[in-house]
Amino acid sequence: MQSPTTTLGSREDLDRVNSQSVRRTITAAVRETVSIEGPIELDRLARSIGQRFGYDRLRATRKDFILDCVPRALIHGTQLGSFAWPEQLDRDTWRGFRSTSVGVTRPLSEIAPEEIINAMAASCGPRGLDEEALMRETIGKFGQRRLTQGTTERLAACIALAVKTGRLLRIGQTIRAGA
Questions:
Q1: 16 Cβ contact list (under 8 Å, min separation 6)
Q2: Taking a C-beta distance cutoff of 8 angstroms, is the pair 2, 40 a contact?
Q3: Strands (E), 59-108
Q4: What is the DSSP letter of 105?
Q5: What are phi and psi for residue 130, nearest 5 degrees?
Q6: What secondary structure does DSSP assign to 52-94, as a single string?
């Protein structure tokens, strides 16, 4: 689903860091966006909110102000990135993923590792795939075609994490869905 696009305020409002009213507006918009689009990478979330104040690009101070308004309970960070999660989603038991629509660009760095792992588990199924085939199947679910170095590194890190947690099983050269 798409993030909301209604205007939240003027450009000047994002410079009013001491305004409780602006903070409340941003926090409400964050909760709304995360409930629709989450898990969502924090930089992407800040850009989405910034656009609703009329900015295509955000200075670091404005981005930091927006991120300061994100409720800490929604944020989960790992070495693979920091993401805001909807309150109703349990990261440990959630098995969903969102396919990326044609014409939409969604870099793997902006997709939560849990979501990538869920797509991997769905891709390889009980019979399994070799690592490269699994990577190709997975990027296809996210609307991508080419395995670049960055994409391969992110997918390899997700596979390693998934094997460590039992979500994927590595048997010889084959990777299968786990728990």
A1: 22
A2: no
A3: 75-78, 81-84
A4: -
A5: -75, 165
A6: TTT-SS--HHHHHHHHHTS-GGGEEEETTEEEE--TT--TTT-
Query: What is the residue whose two structure tokens read 């490269």?
Result: 132
Terminal C-alpha separation, the chain: 28
Ranges of the chain whose pLDDT falls below 50: none
Q: What is the pTM of this model?
A: 0.89
Q: What are the Cα distances from residue 169, in Å, to 14, 85, 104, 141, 143?
A: 47, 26, 31, 20, 25
Each residue's pLDDT tens digit, 73-109: 999 998 899 999 999 999 889 999 988 777 777 889 9
For residue 43, with 0-12 CB atoms within 10 Å meaning exposed, 13-18 middle and 19 or more buried, which class applies? Answer: middle
Q: How many CB atoms lie within 10 A of CB 91?
A: 13
Going 100 to 104 to 107 to 110, the CA torsion angle's sign is negative
pLDDT at 3: 64
